[in-house]
Amino acid sequence: RSLRLGALLGAVGAALGVPLVKDLRRQRHIDVRVDQTSLVIEGHGPFPYQVDGDHLGDTERLEFHHHPDFLRLVFPA
């Protein structure tokens, strides 16, 4: 809800579990949604986007879908 420096630093600290920062869900400038399977972002015209630092061009719409069982991670014992 806010891109102020203090708000962003608080969100990063909460996400990383810094003890002095409130839980991420209790940050008033963060809108936490659970049990969502997709997200659509639409602009009021073309906007640039990137993945892993690589510029992929401009678009007017991005769609994200969550597939929880898509990738299995195996950790050594």
Descriptive notes:
- The structure is a single chain.
- This protein is of the alpha+beta class and 77 residues long.
- Helices cover 14% and strands 34% of the residues.
- A hairpin with a 2-residue loop joins strand 1 (38-51) and strand 2 (54-65).
- The radius of gyration is 16 Å and the shape is extended.
The whole-angstrom Rg is 16 Å
Distance between the termini: 41 Å
| Helix/strand/pairing category | alpha+beta
How are the strands ordered across the major sheet?
Answer: 1-2
Range of strand content? 25-35%
Poorly predicted regions: none
User: In sequence order, what are the helices and strands, one letter per element?
Assistant: HEE
What's the total helix number? 1
Mean pLDDT, rounded to whole units?
85
Any idea what the shape is?
extended
Helix content: 10-25%
Count the beta strands.
2
The main β sheet shows up as: 2 strands, antiparallel
Topology:
Layout (H helix, E strand, L loop, with lengths): L4 H11 L22 E14 L2 E12 L12
Antiparallel strand pairs: 1-2
Keywords:
two-stranded antiparallel sheet; 34% strand; alpha+beta; 77 residues; extended
Quick summary:
This protein has 77 residues and is α+β, with helices and mostly antiparallel strands. Helices cover 14% and strands 34% of the residues.
